[in-house]
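Support reply, case 0932

Customer input (verbatim):
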Amino acid sequence: MTAVVFDLDGTLIDSAPDIAANANAVLEEMGMSPLPEAQLRGFIGKGVGHLIGQVLAASGQAADGPFHAPMVQRFNARYDTAFENTVIYPSVVPALEALIDAGCVLGICTNKPIAPTHAVLRHLRLDGYFGVVYGGDSLSQRKPDPAPLLAAAKDLGHAQVIYVGDSEVDAETAANAKVPFLIYTEGYRKTPVHDLPHDAAFNDFKQLSGLVAALMKG
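Our regenerated output:
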């Protein structure tokens, strides 16, 4: 059997509108101007601390200066309920069901903190599909360190692992873990797909089960 482990933001769900709104609310509370959602979308993927550092730098402040810690705290305080405008990408649920029907077990490995990860999965009714969930603060290491992905794979108890993500961080994580990587091209990636290590790319979740089956046979 095969374990298929997924990134979350930009892979299974489009959470950028809520993450951007949360970041801009914090900026306004700190007396700074909001940033465009398109710009904030590019900061997603390496955890809250990195996100806030990028937000500060884009606002003309020191990324690791005195505003960083209080802004992280304010951001996290509302993160568990920041999903009003978050949506599941098209065809995700049928794809997950098809993988389970094919005998795969599923997990999550994301840099999103574990509490808002569980909250948004429950809110979107996705939590029942995954046997294990690792967030950015589940271990002392976070992606692109392979430790969370390898821990998720170990917990799922399967030797063959496939990672599915959308970003540079996800591609690097899979490479570091030495597992096959499938990249969803409609997420938050900034680098051209052909410049990232991957086994296959897809732009529609209807394609996923076939790609996983091909890797399983390989």
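We compared this against your earlier run and they match. Two observations from our side: The chain is about 40% helix and 15% strand. The longest strand covers residues 160-165. Please reopen the case if you see a mismatch on your end.
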